[in-house]
Each structure stands twice: as C-alpha cells, then as structure tokens.
Design goal:
Strand 4 and strand 5 form a beta hairpin. This protein has one domain (8-163): Beta Polymerase, domain 2, CATH 3.30.460.40. A 7-stranded mixed β-sheet has the order 3-4-5-2-1-7-6. It is 39% helix and 20% strand. By secondary structure, the protein is α/β, with parallel strands linked by helices. It contains 6 helices and 7 strands, in the order H-E-H-E-H-E-E-E-H-E-E-H-H.
C-alpha cells in the first residue's frame, strides 16, 4: 500500500472507529497544546489490555501498518508483540505511527491516563492526549536532544496559559 502524506486525523479516526484505548503523546500532543514545531508522525501510548491490543491490531491492519525497521520485508504488527512496554515504530498508509507501550520512566497507559485531557477533533470524534504539565515532565525526563529543544516552547505555552 503506497504511503500518503501524513494525515493525523485519518489515523485518529481509524483508531477510534476500532475502539482502541490510546493516548496521543509526543509532537502531535505538543501541537495540540499550541506548539508550531512541525511533526510528521503520531506517537501513542496504548492500553495493553488484551482486548484493546486486538482492537489495535485491527486498526493497524486497516491503516496498512508495518514495522519501519524491517526494510527487507513488511513485518505486520500483531497484538501478541505489543504486550510489553516496548516501542513499535510503524509506517502506515497515512504516515508514521509510533505505538509506545510506555514513555518516560516507564509510564504506561494506566499511569498516564489520569494526566490526560480530552480533545474534540470534530463532533463525536474525541480522543485523549497528555495534559501540558505531564507532557513537559515527560520531555524533561527523556533528555533526548529533540525533547530538550521542545521544552522552551512548551514552557512558554504554559506561562501564557497561566497568565490568562
């Protein structure tokens, strides 16, 4: 399946249509909070509940997902491979999707869920993303160069919100 331009909304809608429990993290999360730093992939932390993983497998199949790092063949993501806190770096028909079992200090779906907000993409299309303070905390904890570059932007957004 040929890749199209990155289409965050299409990815979200397919995940929601398949009733996948997930939290948007990373660059898209930052953009939803007001960052203008471009991103061309979607990072999610998924519930590792077995039923949810099966729904995620179905959604990823619908997205035409396959592992990016296996260039010699298209290895397809399966529910039984996503039961740990590891990362699954995937290409899809709508752009890259990173399915993360956990982020920053092994925070998984249950640990992150209380630190999320609901975003309404359009009527009846709602999903969860990290709240701004938790996004900042996770960026501070990872210490990766791209996260350190993002921190001043996120902190400025937080200051602007606090001034309102």
């Amino acid at each position: 399946m040929p890749e199209k331009r990155f289409d965050f909304e299409a990815i979200v809608k397919i995940l929601l249509r398949n009733n996948v429990d997930f939290i948007v993290v990373g660059g898209i999360c930052a953009a939803l909070h007001g960052s203008d730093t471009p991103t061309q992939d979607m990072d999610i932390v998924q519930s590792r509940d077995p039923d949810n993983l099966k729904r995620l497998e179905n959604a990823l199949s619908e997205l035409g997902a396959y592992y990016r790092e296996h260039t010699n063949k298209r290895l397809i993501p399966k529910a039984e491979r996503m039961t740990t806190g590891g990362h699954h770096l995937l290409n899809t028909a709508f752009g890259p999707v990173d399915v993360l079992g956990a982020i920053a200090n092994q925070r998984d779906y249950p640990a992150l869920l209380p630190h999320t907000i609901e975003i309404e993409l359009e009527e009846d299309v709602r999903f969860r993303t990290l709240d701004l303070s938790t996004l900042i905390l996770t960026k501070q904890e990872t210490g990766r160069e791209k996260d350190r570059r993002m921190l001043p932007i996120l902190l400025r957004i937080q200051e602007e919100i606090e001034r309102r």
